Structure formats: structure tokens, C-alpha cells
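Hi R.,

As promised on Friday, here is the backbone we talked about, encoded as C-alpha cells. Could you run it through your design pipeline when you get a chance and send me back a sequence?
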């Protein structure tokens, strides 16, 4: 079954560019990097979305710092007018409201998928099949729909969604559940209980709904965002409207603002491989590694070295002697050497660097 004429995709492509420093910068965050030689994660997301809807029904939301690079990467597929920059970062709820307004201007009855651009998805065909099922359900039910990930370990860095009873719909090709609650990032012990129960999935930030349904829920739970989206949809000068009104919106996440309060939320569990590649540690798990666990994308010589992650220009020779559990990242203008246990603190040292290196 092909895409319905009312189906749209909104790709969220912002980010600060700190977690993968020095490879990433403010103007080139993770989703704009080609980490595995298969194109940037943004381009992978665009191609994935193009398997679901025509490219003229894809919108990309980014920020002013990254606008030029996003437009450069997607120019062969996406109309420049469909790449929109937030004038100021306001978290995910205002970003979603902006996207709803843009799509409502095209079709006030549209069904839409919201997806981040910075996740690695292993099976595009399975993703498209599940997204089509969710979009079709959004056209039949006044519900906000989430796509969650079955946990592979008790990760305390993700939000979780607790499922309740199965949602029965004879037209569905995938299993769907009603949602009991959203859970913020837990401590390690709580995450372990969540995973052991079998009732929880990771919140991957992927949402599906119809424009009328999401506007009704925004009106009920965060009317400022509903008013903004409706007024944007009616505006004859949308870019001017965004520039003037978007910075006035209250920064808040879509989970806090809407999903935790919504009247009816449903959940599909992903049938595709997913990884948010959230740090050098997770990226290292996807790089080729030697028998001592040294993972790298380049030529590596080791002596009494184990468990290191090395990322450099392909073909550059790196030698490690007597060191273990380090992250070593070499770029033309910067070098990072850090302990793996300090991966989450990289953003702290980025704050100390001169602006031209961030």
C-alpha cells in the first residue's frame, strides 16, 4: 500500500554538536556527520521518509546555525522552502507545534509522522511498513501514537513508555497497545525493573497523529502552542510569523507539554533495529574492533592496549602503547583524548574551548 495523499513527515534536525566533539561542532552536529560511510544520519532519515511519502511532503526543522549545511545536504531531494530554521531553540514541544502549523497550512486534515534525524535504523522497509500502519490508524482514531523501542538493556539515559492493554483493530498489521504512562529517565535500579517487567519500551521520540487530533490535544493541554500552530497555518508570511512569534514560546519538551497529559495515547513497538548513537561509546560498538577490543575506523597499531575507541581520518595511522579504555578522536584542528568513563562529560570541556572550535 502506498502513501495516502494526506500523509506528511516532519524531521527534527537540531542539536548542539557537543557529544561527538571534536568531530561534531555547533554547525555540524551528529546527524550531519557521515559516521559510517553511508551518508549522514540526516540523509538516511530523508531517504527513509521518501520511502513513505513523496519528497514534497517532507519538512525538515533545524536551527539557524545548521540551516546552511542541512539545506546543502538535502538540496537534491527537498525543496528549500521545506527546510525551516527555528530562530531560537525552544525544545521539542514548540518545534512540534511549528511543524504542525507548517503541515496544517498544506492540508488541515493531514496525518503526520514526527521523527528525529539522529537515530540509526537498521531496516528501512520495516520502518516504512510500521509507519504506514500507524498513519492509517491515526486517520481512524483520535489518538496520539508513539513508536517505541524494545529495550535491549536497562538504560538509565532514555525515557520509557509503559504499555497497558493491547489495542484491537482488525486493520492493523502490527501490534498496538494503549499507553499507561510516560516515565522520565530512571535510575539504574528502576530501569532494570522496567525492563524485567516486559511492559516498557524506550521512548524514541517518534510520533504519529492527524493534524485535527494533535491540535485538539494542544488546545486542551498547552493552548499557547495550539494558538501558535493555528495562526502559523493561516499566516500569509510564515517565515516572518515564525521569526516574530516562535521566540516567545515557552521552552518545554513534547513529553512534558503534551504526551504525558493527552487523553488517548497508543504505542507501537518497533519491528526494526534502532540505535540513537548517543555517544562515542555507542559509536565505538559499531566500529570494527580487534581481539583486544580496540575499535577504530582507521589503521591502528597497538602494543599492550585494550578497549580503546579511535576515530580519525580514514587511512591515518594511529598507534596506541600501554593505554586502555580511552577515546581518541583526531580532526584537522583538534584532538580529544578522554577516558571512556568520562564520555558524558565531553560537553563540559567543550564549554571551555574557543568559539572557533565549538
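Update: got your reply. Pasting your designed sequence below so it's all in one thread:
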Amino acid at each position: 500500500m502506498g502513501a495516502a495523499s494526506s500523509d506528511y513527515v516532519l524531521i527534527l534536525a537540531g542539536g548542539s554538536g557537543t557529544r561527538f566533539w571534536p568531530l561534531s561542532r555547533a554547525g555540524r552536529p551528529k546527524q550531519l556527520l557521515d559516521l559510517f560511510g553511508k551518508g549522514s544520519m540526516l540523509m538516511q532519515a530523508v531517504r527513509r521518509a521518501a520511502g513513505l511519502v513523496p519528497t514534497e511532503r517532507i519538512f525538515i526543522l533545524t536551527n539557524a546555525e545548521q540551516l546552511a549545511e542541512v539545506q546543502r545536504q538535502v538540496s537534491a531531494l527537498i525543496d528549500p522552502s521545506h527546510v525551516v530554521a527555528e530562530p531560537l531553540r525552544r525544545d521539542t514541544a514548540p518545534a512540534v507545534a511549528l511543524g504542525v502549523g507548517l503541515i496544517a497550512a498544506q492540508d488541515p486534515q493531514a496525518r503526520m509522522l514526527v521523527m528525529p534525524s539522529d537515530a540509526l535504523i537498521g531496516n528501512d522497509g520495516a520502518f516504512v511498513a510500521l509507519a504506514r500502519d500507524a498513519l492509517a490508524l491515526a486517520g481512524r482514531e483520535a489518538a496520539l501514537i508513539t513508536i517505541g523501542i524494545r529495550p535491549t538493556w536497562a538504560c538509565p539515559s532514555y525515557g520509557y513508555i509503559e504499555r497497558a492493554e493491547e489495542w484491537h483493530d482488525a486493520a492493523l498489521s502490527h501490534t498496538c497497545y494503549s499507553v499507561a504512562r510516560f516515565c522520565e529517565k530512571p535510575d539504574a535500579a528502576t530501569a532494570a525493573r522496567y525492563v524485567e517487567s516486559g511492559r516498557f519500551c524506550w521512548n524514541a521520540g517518534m510520533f504519529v497523529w492527524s493534524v485535527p487530533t494533535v491540535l485538539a490535544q494542544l488546545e486542551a493541554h498547552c493552548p499557547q502552542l495550539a494558538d501558535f500552530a493555528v495562526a502559523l497555518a493561516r499566516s500569509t508570511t510564515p517565515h516572518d510569523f515564525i521569526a516574530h512569534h516562535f521566540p516567545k514560546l515557552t521552552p518545554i519538551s513534547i513529553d512534558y507539554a503534551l504526551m504525558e497529559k493527552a487523553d488517548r495515547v497508543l504505542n507501537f513497538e518497533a519491528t526494526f533495529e534502532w540505535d540513537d548513537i548517543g555517544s562515542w561509546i555507542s559509536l565505538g560498538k559499531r566500529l570494527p574492533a580487534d581481539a583486544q577490543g580496540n575499535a577504530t575506523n582507521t589503521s591502528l597499531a597497538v602494543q599492550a592496549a585494550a578497549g580503546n575507541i579511535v576515530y580519525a581520518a580514514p587511512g591515518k595511522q594511529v598507534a596506541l602503547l600501554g593505554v586502555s579504555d580511552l577515546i581518541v578522536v583526531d580532526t584537522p584542528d583538534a584532538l580529544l583524548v578522554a577516558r571512556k568513563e568520562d564520555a558524558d562529560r565531553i560537553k563540559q570541556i567543550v564549554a571551555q574551548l574557543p568559539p572557533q572550535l565549538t
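One thing I noticed while checking it: The CA atoms of residues 70 and 271 lie 29 Å apart.

Thanks again,
M.
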